Amino acid sequence: MPDTRTGELLGTVIGDLVAGIRERREPALADEPDAVHQLRTSVRRLRNVLAGFGRYVEKRPARELRDHLASYGAVLGAGRDLEVRAEDCRRVLAELGRTDLEPALVAPLLAAHGGAHAVLVDWHASPDAVALDRLLEQWAEDPPFTHRARRPAGPATAKVLRREVRRVLDRAADGETSHEVRKAARRLRHVADALGEAALASAGKDIQGRLGDHRDALLLAGHLGAAGAPAAVIAHVETAASRTLDGLPEALAALREVDGS
């Protein structure tokens, strides 16, 4: 990497991420297993890389692409969140031996997922989809970099990674919501993954995963309460939610150790 410029490295990363989005689209539209999740993750990866390297890309074009990706991610997320909740609900009911409750608690989630997927399919025929595809093509072929992108990649990427680590640790230390810590950890994971920094990516993934599991459990408990599930089922989920955070201090400590702070 000594002779590589930041723009060269970032151009390759962006091109790969755009290709990933394109490759995962058809399986997602066919609603193949885990395909929407994979596409949504690819969209988030590109958004997070653009945010992490915000000093190396032109602000206005980057903001435009990130806004379009955010809208796309929201459409993808509507169906994916319902899919996860249905899977988690079915698992909990199996654990408790209450599969008799599936028609009341799982079936509505699956029906809502079907509707959300239909919206996703329709979205791909919309002007928003055309605009996003145009932007993706432009960025894949000729990303709008700033003068900073001419700098050597090694020192630049090290600075980016340090900033991403600090974002996670600062949010955790300042008592910000777990939602903010989770988003910061996800961004660290995606940026580190793009740069081949496995240790930092793993640390970010660990924190993101714990907080994500906590969020999913709370959302499931909310669904169960609204659907009139037995108190024992709701209590089981709430107990599981609290357990997901048990290892969070250790995960943050591991990140500090990787960072050397």
Automatic annotation (TrEMBL):
Residues 1-257 form the CHAD domain. Pfam families: CHAD. It comes from the Bacteria. PANTHER family: CHAD DOMAIN-CONTAINING PROTEIN (PTHR39339:SF1), SLR1444 PROTEIN (PTHR39339). This is CHAD domain-containing protein. It comes from Nocardioides daeguensis. The lineage of its organism: Bacteria, Bacillati, Actinomycetota, Actinomycetes, Propionibacteriales.
